[in-house]
Structure formats: structure tokens, C-alpha cells
Design goal:
By secondary structure, this protein is an alpha/beta fold. It folds into two domains: 46 residues; 126 residues, Glutaredoxin (3-Layer(aba) Sandwich). It has five helices and seven strands, in the order αβββαβαβαββα.
């Protein structure tokens, strides 16, 4: 075997080793992120119900609103409540948001509560987005993600339909179609 061929094989072997090392490092990073997220979920599990599911009480929260005031879940009791977890960077959330705004604007005041909880973004970014698109529905800010963790939100958008007594009646993960929104509002979950 000539020297050029030996050198080429050596370079190829080094590249394969480098790719394996990079793959292992990337895998370790993913595992670390999953472990940290899992530990955080475990740390907050003691603050909320052990199993968040239909029929369980909705976890209490206190969040700042995009307009500056503070809102608690207790403030919403007495009427059916629809909570939508979303973010400005989430394409399905952006697609669904005009339909949520329309449902909010079309419903008689006091029939039900609709609250969009932005997950993990700062107030200025959310307010800038709301101003750009002209939405007026109530938006709360979960900047730390603590409420999203308490509600076990794993994908965006996620919807929680809560009865007037604070009991979860439905959990829906994903963007709702306009007809699905109309059906839920007509039935009030």
C-alpha cells in the first residue's frame, strides 16, 4: 500500500472518530437537558396535584397580565374558563390565535373566561407581538414557566377547559380548528 493511501485511510479513521465523539457529546447534552427538565418537573410535582387530568382541580396560579395587573385562577372561578398555553414563536399558536381572538370578541361578556398564558417569554416581546397583530384577548405571562410546569404543558398550544367550580373538564394539546372552537364555546365544555 502506498503512503498516500495509508494517509487517506488514517484521515478517514480520524473523521469517523470525530463524528462518533460529536455524536456521543450531543447525546450526553440531550440526556442532561432531559434530566434537568425531569428534575424540575419532579421538584414542582409536590406543589401541584399528583396527576393533572380531567376531573382534577385546576392548579392555582398568580400571574402578571400583559397589561400589568395580576390575575389568579381564583379570580376566574364562578364561570367556565378556557386557558390556552401558547408562545409567540410557536407556528401552530400563531395560526390558531386569530380564531381565539374571534371567539373572545364574539362571545357576550361574562359568558366564560378565556385566558391565553404565554409560556416563557418576557413581557416586552409579548406586548410587542400583541400590538403588532391587534389582539385584545386577556394574556397572562408565565415568564418563569412555573405555571406551565404545574399544568404539565409539554406541547404548544395546550388548552385546558375548566368548569365554573375549577375542575378540569378537558385537556387538548394542539391547535384547535375554528369549528372545534365554536363547538366548545357553544357547549361551554
Amino acid at each position: 500500500m502506498d503512503a498516500a493511501r495509508v494517509e487517506a485511510l488514517g484521515n478517514e479513521t480520524r473523521l469517523r472518530r470525530r463524528d462518533v465523539v460529536i455524536g456521543i457529546a450531543a447525546g450526553a447534552l440531550v440526556l442532561a437537558v432531559v434530566a434537568i427538565f425531569g428534575l424540575r418537573m419532579g421538584a414542582t410535582a409536590s406543589k401541584g396535584p399528583t396527576a393533572l387530568q380531567v376531573g382534577s382541580p385546576a392548579p392555582e396560579f398568580s400571574l402578571p397580565m400583559a397589561g400589568g395587573e395580576t390575575l389568579t385562577l381564583a379570580d376566574l372561578k364562578g364561570r367556565p374558563t378556557w386557558i390556552n398555553f401558547w408562545a409567540t414563536w410557536c407556528p401552530p399558536c400563531r395560526t390558531e390565535m386569530p380564531d381565539l381572538q374571534e371567539a373572545y370578541a364574539a362571545s357576550p361578556p361574562g359568558r366564560y373566561n378565556l385566558l391565553a398564558i404565554d409560556m416563557g417569554e418576557d413581557a416586552a416581546s409579548v406586548q410587542r407581538y400583541l400590538n403588532e397583530v391587534g389582539y385584545t384577548l386577556p394574556v397572562a405571562l408565565d415568564e418563569t414557566g412555573d405555571v406551565s410546569l404545574r399544568y404539565r404543558v409539554l406541547g404548544l398550544p395546550t388548552h385546558f377547559f375548566i368548569d365554573k367550580d375549577g375542575v378540569i373538564k378537558e385537556i387538548y394539546v394542539g391547535a384547535l380548528k375554528p369549528e372545534e372552537i365554536r363547538q366548545r364555546v357553544a357547549a361551554l365544555w
